[in-house]
Amino acid sequence: MLKQTVSIAGKEVGASNPPYVIAEIGSNHDQSKDKAFRMIDLAAEAGAHAAKFQLFQADKMYPAETKMHDIFRSIQLDSGWLTDLAARCDEAGIHFMASPFDEQSADKLEAAGVPAYKVASSETAKPGLLSHIASFGKPVIISTGMCDLVDIHDAVQICRRAGNENVILLQCGAMYPIPPEHVHLRVMDTFASLYGCPVGFSDHTTGMAAAVAAVGRGASVIEKHITLDRNSDGPDHFFAMQPEELVTYVAMINEAHTCLGSAEKCMLPWERAKSRREGLYAARDIRKGEVLQPADILIQRPAGDIRKRHFLTLVGSSVRKDIAQGEGFSWEGLNITDS
């Protein structure tokens, strides 16, 4: 099994911790450093924990003078910005992160001091790149779009062979946007069962319901593409989330996690004090040392300290102090007899 909890720059990520939210800026900076800075600031203000970019080299991805080469060339991040982007994230109080698409890009990110690495779905089945990333010893967050379980098992084993068990697996579908029927959040259960690691969700839906459901399903990490304007030109703007939406999105994720609460079922303090449940009260003034008889015990609302189901336990017990008529019984004020 992998580690159940992973630390990213001192922030614990795991099933018992609030979700770690990654604002995926990706290539939506449109090759403008000022726009990248604005998006970092907005992600931090919304409450995200990391601002993430993509670091690739179009020349290594597609043949020159092809349509895809031209598209990726027009949106690739200037690696000379990395130090400035990392510094801006530090100033904003948010982690700087990026997905490297080749070993050279990974080395540049390591030099920039990223606290963790995000592996894009398209790169998960690249053994050399994944091994290189894992060798840094930092947390590796792996998206699993376009992968089957064999690909994922291979990726996990590559990280292990590199001596890195700080792995987080994200359920992901490589559709942009992805319709709800193809989200398959239950896959996170499979990941958790097989590997014991933190799991999460890379959200390519157009709404917020999937992220809330993912938190309810145990997601420790949520990733969401963001943009300043969905109407901007570029391949990743049209399905991304705008700043005002991100604020609501993060708030809903946090509220969903708060709603998970405890697995222990008990009465809430408010329910005990104000609810329609009934408790046990003194039917008359009772002196210290008296032994309680059924007629001495009044059943009425609210539940108080001792609920009515303990009626027979109180019968035959003596009181440790004077109790006024109408006062609720407490366990501390009774000598309970064995029966």
Automatic annotation (TrEMBL):
One of its GO terms (molecular function) is N-acylneuraminate-9-phosphate synthase activity. InterPro entries: AFP_Neu5c_C_sf, Aldolase_TIM, PseI-like, PseI/NeuA/B-like_N, SAF, SAF_AFP_Neu5Ac, SAF_PseI/NeuA/NeuB. CDD domains: SAF_NeuB_like. It comes from the Bacteria. Residues 279-337 form the AFP-like domain. One of its GO terms (biological process) is carbohydrate biosynthetic process. This is N-acetylneuraminate synthase. It comes from Paucidesulfovibrio gracilis DSM 16080.
